[in-house]
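Quick one: structure tokens for this chain, please?
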Amino acid sequence: MPRSFVSQFLLPLCRGGALHVGRPLGERAVARLLALAATGGPTDGAGIVPDPFLALAAARRELAARYLPTLAAPPLDEVTVRLGAALHNLLALGHPDLAGPSLARRQARIAESALALAAAAPPLSARETVNRHSLLARLPEIVRVDSTVRFWIGRQTFVGQTPPRRVTALPALRRVRVDRTRRSWLREIGIPAVGRRAFLALNAASPLGEALDPLRLDPPIGWGRILPILRFPGIARVVAGGALEIGVDPAGDALAGALYRFAGFHDPPFGMPASSDAVGFALTFLAHLVWLDVLFGGRRDPARADRAEPSVGTGLELAVVLTAAARTRPSLVWPGDVPEAGDLGRAFRARLDTMAARAETGAASQLAAATAIAEFALAPAGRPLAL
């Protein structure tokens, strides 16, 4: 199992290709793979480690270089193996072989195993953040290909499986036609409700993918999961750059909306809890996105000029939250090293004034709730937030 799990699941997960989802994995399977990895992987007669271990290291190194170009090949350590096994089990929840009267019971056991495997503390450094993400960076690209084979006397459907040759044999004589449908695992198929906690734990253990995808819908982005890695300056720059590529208004709206849930203690029980320091940092990060947009908004790649214009309401959530923060304590939003009298200061002030006008016109009733968030950010530790 250990070698095939690396070659048929972890390697295509990082490099691309068909993922083989087999029997659910547990602690013993993880221990066997870790023991093999500790020896450097299986060797040939000359003591050389062949693929897939070297290929996996190379694929992860290529993905990691997008964020930290000087990073060495990420190790196949315990957390990496456990996160890979947890993802495998989450995918197994939808395996067609599970169908039957005991489906719910089987899924519950698999989800429990995935949750135990995914349970890990947040990354402690930018290097660890990227190392973990190098395994899961292509998770949004996972698709399930369903095939319907039609022939002269009927049809058969294969969910996530390649039709066997006996079904597609003699295509001309049997009038065989194969229709394939590709569906995104995250955005179209979704994770069964029983696996939701395990998926949240997976994101808490490796939050960079979530931080780079603020527009995700299920589960929506959560500050409690992404804040631990935003404390690392290199990672914060990567996330801010990604938000600007998406657009400061749509990305900012998603993050601002998530701040209500976080500050109101309505996030799921994964990730760091809300505190005045954490909420203050989140507000500062949102303001920094706007500051960066003021600095670089007019210098975007012309190749991206064909992006659809944002809808009329886009940016309103962000405007409300930052307007309330600026009125409560200007230092929550104003860069400490930028004088208001300079050209950049005036440009930033003009943007804040425009946002304030939008907030007053389009969502004046929400300013009270947003002001409560700003006041909570300035409150002594332990003071509850009333929204």
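Residues 143-189 form one domain.
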